[in-house]
From TrEMBL:
Keywords: Dioxygenase, Oxidoreductase. This is Ectoine hydroxylase-related dioxygenase (Phytanoyl-CoA dioxygenase family). It comes from Actinopolymorpha rutila. SUPFAM superfamilies: Clavaminate synthase-like (SSF51197). The keyword Oxidoreductase applies. Residues 253-272 are annotated as: Disordered. InterPro entries: Phytyl_CoA_dOase-like. Pfam families: PhyH (PF05721). Signal peptide: none annotated. It comes from the Bacteria. GO terms for molecular function: 2-oxoglutarate-dependent dioxygenase activity; iron ion binding. Transmembrane segments: none annotated.
Length: 272
């Protein structure tokens, strides 16, 4: 038993024996009880406080785009809070990412809070790596709910095996991506996996796995913290869209295509 939340974040988690196989085959895996309720309770108030402080979206829900209705999106929280940095730099979570991807180590791409407000709309189908300029698919995101997340709150759902399906990878998150991917993923017979998350459950999904979320129909905001990992030795690719060009400039400052993104804000979080 760990002695403190900080200790738990730096203590290895034992993966289920089939987790690597499920991640490779399905493009995602949900893991039960990765973090204790005490650990989440220790960090959630600081994460939520920083989301409130740094959030720049203040339009009424009715005046927002589909993307803006989906969630409050606040990145780089670790730069503004030592406790949040402690959470984001967790070697427990980073080692899981490395083990699932089968790489020697992982470095931080960035963190991102995704808070789906009461009345928040759908998160349209998309694949995260549309936004990332990398030459490899060795990327993944951990999705950490900060409360029990029943189906009515809009937990993340995944198109099973869609990381191997290339159609739609050029679509940014939008009404169009939702419509097009609903159609083509259905035609491919790729089922949608949707489950509630108990407090302490997390999921990891590959950068090219298509995923979405339903609206939040409860009277409680859906509070989620995410951390995006990349192979510690990944190489930057020539950006192919404006989102990737912006990420290269803002998330990996000073780097160019062909470089390993070994910047001060992209530290290695775990190495074997």
């Amino acid at each position: 038993m760990t002695s403190s939340p900080a200790t738990e974040l730096s203590t290895a988690y034992t993966l289920p024996t089939d987790a690597r196989t499920r991640f490779a085959e399905d493009g995602f895996v949900r893991l039960r009880g990765v973090l204790s309720p005490d650990t989440i309770a220790a960090y959630e108030p600081e994460i939520t406080g920083k989301v409130i402080e740094l959030n720049t979206m203040h339009l009424p829900m009715a005046e927002r785009s589909t993307y803006s209705k989906a969630f409050l999106q606040v990145g780089g929280l670790w730069k503004h809070s030592r406790p949040v940095a402690e959470f984001v730099f967790s070697s427990r979570l980073a080692k899981i990412a490395a083990d699932l991807m089968g790489v020697d180590g992982v470095r931080l791409y960035h963190d991102q809070a995704l808070y789906k407000e009461v009345g928040g709309g759908i998160t349209p189908f998309h694949a995260d790596q549309y936004y990332w300029p990398f030459s490899s698919d060795k990327t993944c995101t951990v999705w950490v709910p900060l409360q029990d997340t029943p189906l009515g709150m809009g937990p993340l759902s995944f198109s099973v095996g869609s990381q191997r399906f290339s159609h739609g990878r050029d679509l940014p998150i939008s009404d169009h991506s939702e419509e097009e991917l609903q159609k083509v993923l259905g035609e491919q017979g790729l089922p949608l996996s949707q489950e509630p998350y108990a407090l302490g459950d997390v999921s990891f999904h590959s950068g090219w796995t298509f995923h979405r979320a339903e609206p939040n129909t409860t009277d409680v905001p859906r509070r989620v913290m995410t951390i995006i990992y990349m192979d510690a030795d990944i190489v930057i690719h020539q950006p192919v869209n404006d989102a990737q060009r912006n990420d290269l400039a803002e998330v990996m400052p000073g780097k160019k295509p062909g470089d390993v993104p070994d910047t001060p804000v992209n530290p290695v979080l775990y190495r074997r």
